[in-house]
Design a protein that fits this description.
The protein is built from 3 helices and 4 strands; from the N terminus they run βαββαβα. By secondary structure, the protein is an alpha+beta fold. It has a single domain, classed as 2-Layer Sandwich (Alpha-Beta Plaits). A hairpin with an 8-residue loop joins strand 2 and strand 3. Bound molecules: iron/sulfur cluster (2 copies).
């Protein structure tokens, strides 16, 4: 090997691995409970919810797009408990249950 040969190795020290564990929960509309009231459309901070036609009712139901950040706000604000937060593994996020129980205790619905 020549003495002036340089071997360069790339060590990606700052690469962030995106795995199922690091991905956040996302909002899912419970079609049987959603009344299409539109409250979540107004409270979602990134405007990723729209009301779409539905066979479930005449007022439509909410639909969450792929930009959902999992902030929980829609799930907390929905007066009909029509939103659940789903972890990447398909399980429900517990904090929402706590919020729902808190709302019931407050007589919110
Ligand atoms: S998910 Fe809840 S807040 Fe959103 S439109 Fe349906 S009932 Fe209203
Ligand atoms: S969890 Fe947050 S970002 Fe996702 S739909 Fe609900 S309010 Fe919007």
């Amino acid at each position: 090997m020549a003495t002036d040969e340089i071997i360069v190795t790339a060590e990606p020290t700052s690469l962030k691995r995106v795995t199922a564990k690091s991905k956040r929960a996302t909002a899912r509309i419970i079609t049987e409970l959603c009344t299409g009231c539109g409250i979540c459309v107004k409270t979602c901070p990134i405007n990723c919810i729209t009301i779409v036609d539905s066979e479930w009712n005449f007022t439509g139901i909410a639909k969450v797009d792929e930009h959902c950040t999992g902030c929980n706000i829609c799930a907390i604000d929905c007066p009909w408990t029509g939103v659940e937060m789903i972890n990447p593994d398909g399980s429900r996020k517990d904090e929402v249950e706590y919020e729902r129980q808190l709302k019931k205790l407050r007589g919110y619905h």
